[in-house]
Design a protein that fits this description.
219 residues, four-stranded parallel beta sheet, 7 helices, elongated, coiled coil
Length: 219
């Protein structure tokens, strides 16, 4: 039987599994975020109910009821009440009533979705080539925001290429300084955080021996 489980294939499979684990953790974090949001909305609903209860017993609410009575049957409303209402409703000097729901701000344009490129194990030249290829891909079809995860310590020299990069220490460096914590766990947690922070739509695991060409990225 031919040996199909070569080391590069196994390594790429590990990256893909780590990427899936990262997206799973990101989904779990998003679920927890929605739960917390629902709890906040419930608390806000309860506060609004309490405000409404207090408002019904306030003088402003009674004033509003008097206005409604005046509008419905003005002939039975006493002149004293009319003068009181006019005094209460008179706008202050220089005051301009606000229009409910009116806003001068314009909605911002919808952001393009983010794609996370996991480029672990690429040397500096290969990483540069990948960034150039991604830039060419966006010139053809600018349909996403690229985020590249790299373990190249000299990645800052490539920032001028205009692609957002995130750094993760390589396995050997991490295990030398932090043997108490598994590098695979660090990778999974970092992928989860990047998926959450950038709201990534797609994760691309880059083969360090055969980085994708422009044609492959356009597929």
């Amino acid at each position: 039987m031919s040996d199909l489980s070569t080391e590069p294939e196994l390594e790429k499979l590990r990256w893909e599994i780590a990427a899936l684990a990262g997206r799973l953790r990101s989904a779990q974090l998003e679920r927890d975020s929605w739960r917390a949001r629902c709890e906040r909305l419930t608390e806000q609903r309860d506060r609004e109910r309490e405000k409404a209860r207090k408002l019904r017993g306030s003088g402003s609410y009674r004033l509003g009821r008097a206005i409604v009575s005046l509008a419905r049957d003005p002939f039975r409303t006493s002149p004293r009440l009319v003068r009181g209402l006019a005094r209460r409703l008179r706008p202050r000097a220089g005051g301009v009533p606000a229009v409910p729901g009116q806003s001068s701000s314009t909605p911002s344009a919808k952001r393009r979705p983010a794609h996370l490129y996991v480029a672990i194990g690429l040397d500096h030249d290969a990483l540069r080539g990948l960034l150039v290829t991604i830039g060419q891909r966006l010139l053809v079809t600018p349909d996403h925001r690229p985020v590249v995860l790299t373990d190249d310590p000299a990645f800052s020299l490539l920032r001028k290429l205009g692609v957002l990069m995130e750094y993760l220490p390589d396995r050997a460096t991490w295990e030398r300084h932090r043997p108490d914590r598994a590098w695979d766990d660090l990778l999974a947690e970092r992928l989860a955080r990047l998926c959450r922070d950038h709201d990534t739509e797609r994760t691309v695991v880059v083969d360090r021996l055969h980085p994708p060409t422009l044609a492959e990225l356009l597929c």
